[in-house]
Specification:
Blueprint: H1 3-10, H2 33-42, E1 48-55, E2 57-58, E3 70-71, H3 76-94, E4 101-109, H4 117-130, E5 132-143, H5 150-159, E6 163-169, H6 173-178, H7 185-197, E7 202-209, H8 216-228, E8 233-238, H9 260-276, E9 279-282, E10 286-289, H10 293-299, E11 304-306, E12 309-311, E13 317-321, E14 326-329, E15 332-336, H11 340-348, E16 354-359, H12 362-377, E17 379-381, H13 382-388, H14 400-408, E18 413-415, E19 418-420, H15 429-434
Parallel strand pairs: 1-4, 1-13, 2-3, 4-5, 5-6, 6-7, 7-8
Antiparallel strand pairs: 8-10, 9-10, 11-12, 14-15, 15-16, 17-19, 18-19
Helix pairs in contact: 3-4, 3-11, 4-5, 8-9
């Protein structure tokens, strides 16, 4: 095995994915409904907004799933939840000046495809009623291919959906069986064709490596099958086995999970095949067509990272709606309750269901910018960074000892104070970011492994 891979495995510690900074484990109850209300009221009248709507329901829980969701075979709880979600949508708007424009809307879950066409339609109608939605706004939805129907797709198209993300994970029946998610290829094919038939041509596809029983051949075939369906973006995530957080993951036979070395080989095999198929690597885990807006954002140095991962969303504030949803405002982060009954009770009382969050300090903003730069571009010139932010030259030098240790193993290159993560060790970028994390205490927090 090449020395870089050995070094990465040696340091295969658990560090955050850095979709925010500070990360969610460091949120506290100091951020309340009152705090969030004040943050909303302080948003500038010309601020641009992104809305995230969380649908926390699935017909069944897939064993690999790390999302906040619950299983239901009945539709009544979903319909009742939508009623509350619409009230929250109106409540948030009541604390805004009204001049803000929505540039992005994202439906996540769970499975937003659990929504009936009628309920999806009334959600979008309410959003457009209370918010000024830009005519060029990206409106995206995450879909389970097993639940895609023509009636739903017709509703998506009519309501203005511009991008759909299909959760595929793996195309092989033995792997699907091992993760509790059976979906034959024709089902995925039909979902893609339906979306395209209704004019929704921007299609994302999620694949996972590191799943139970997966082989290199499986990974290579997954890329071939996915590319044959011609999605504009493919996300390649490493399965995060965290049974201490998600009890249903205990249903997965740990003895069948690929080890660290095998996971690295799978990642390398997938990225090689994706490049051959014409996909440009974006950050740590996204691959897009050369003409995709995300590729253009990479070239123009405007790529961003938020709770949905890599994004072209450059709005001023992200407002999360629904159980467990997180908002990212200029002043800080807030998260809604994870308890549906508490969520309904808060909204009924005209209170925001916020239970925790984090107000940003000046240091947080600086470190967040440095971490985002590394996560998006795999390099950071501390000389230029500190100068452009008007900081003392040595402001972030507390990270250098940890970075030097990574450099000794070849996982980063240090050219003076210029940090570069080598292409052959891209997964080490999270380790490099951790060097700037003032809150991280690896012995106290448990995260997904790097490799």
């Amino acid at each position: 095995m090449p020395a870089l891979k050995e070094a990465l495995l040696k340091r295969n510690s658990q560090v955050p994915r850095y979709t925010s900074y500070p990360t969610a484990p460091h949120f506290t109850a100091d951020v309340t409904d009152t705090t969030f209300t004040g943050w909303l009221m302080d948003l500038k009248d010309d601020a641009s907004l992104s809305l995230y709507l969380h649908i926390p329901y699935c017909k069944q829980i897939c064993w690999y799933c790390g999302c906040f969701t619950k299983a239901t075979r009945q539709y009544e709880p979903i319909s009742a939840y939508v009623d509350t979600l619409l009230k929250e949508t109106e409540l948030v708007r009541a604390h805004l000046s009204g001049g803000q424009t929505v540039g992005h809307i994202h439906f996540g879950g769970g499975s937003p495809s659990m929504l009936s066409p009628a309920d999806f339609t009334r959600i979008m109608k309410t959003v457009r009623q209370f918010y000024s939605v830009d005519k060029n706004a990206e409106v995206a939805i995450e879909l389970d291919p097993r639940e895609v129907t023509e009636a739903k797709v017709a509703a998506y198209a009519k309501a203005g959906i511009t991008r759909a993300s299909l959760g595929v994970q793996d195309f092989h029946e033995p792997v699907q069986k091992a993760i509790g998610r059976r979906q034959p290829f024709h089902m995925i094919y039909d979902a893609v064709q339906l979306l395209k038939d209704y004019g929704i041509s921007d299609i994302n596809m999620d694949l996972l490596y590191g799943l139970p029983g997966q082989s290199i051949e499986d990974i290579e075939e997954n890329v071939a099958f996915a590319a044959a369906l011609a999605p504009s973006r493919i996300a390649l995530f490493g399965y995060a086995h965290v049974p201490w957080m998600k009890k249903h993951m205990r249903l997965i036979d740990e003895e069948t999970l690929p080890g660290g070395a095998a996971r690295l080989e799978q990642f390398d095999a997938a990225t090689t095949r994706l490049a051959r198929r014409g996909y440009t690597a974006i950050g740590l885990d996204h691959f897009v067509r050369a003409t995709d807006p995300m590729a253009l954002a990479l070239q123009g140095h405007t790529l961003k990272r938020n709770f949905q991962g890599y994004t072209t969303d450059n709005t001023d504030a992200l407002i999360g709606l629904g159980v467990s949803a997180i908002s990212a405002l200029p002043q800080g982060y807030s998260q809604n309750t994870l308890v549906t009954a508490d969520y309904e009770k808060a909204i009924a009382a005209n209170d925001h269901p916020v239970v925790k969050g984090r107000a940003l300090t000046a240091d947080d903003r600086i470190r967040r910018a440095a971490i985002e730069e590394l996560m998006c571009y795999f390099e950071l010139d501390l000389e230029l960074f500190t100068a452009s932010h008007g900081l003392p030259r040595a402001y972030l030098d507390d990270a250098l000892p940890k970075l030097s240790a990574l450099a000794a193993d070849g996982l980063v290159e240090l050219k003076g104070r210029h940090i570069i993560v080598p292409e052959k060790a891209r997964q080490a970028v999270r380790l490099a970011c951790a060097a700037f994390d003032a809150y991280l205490a690896p012995s106290q927090q448990r995260h997904a492994q790097v490799a």
